[in-house]
Design goal:
mainly alpha
């Protein structure tokens, strides 16, 4: 329904995320830097939390 209304050529809202639709916002960049830091420091667990639809995947 929204595909025809917005004249989309692809379906951006599938169950499996497609990286071609990723938008690298400032919030995403900051979260990624925290994840990288945790990995570089050898942290045991790194958890990303947030409400549904906030881009955790």
């Amino acid at each position: 329904m929204y595909s025809s209304f917005y004249k989309l050529k692809a379906k951006p809202f599938q169950l499996s995320p497609d990286p071609k639709f990723f938008f690298n916002s400032g919030v995403h960049k900051r979260a990624l830097s925290y994840l990288r830091y945790g990995l570089e420091q050898g942290e045991g667990f790194i958890v990303v939390t947030g409400a549904p639809g906030t881009g955790k995947t």
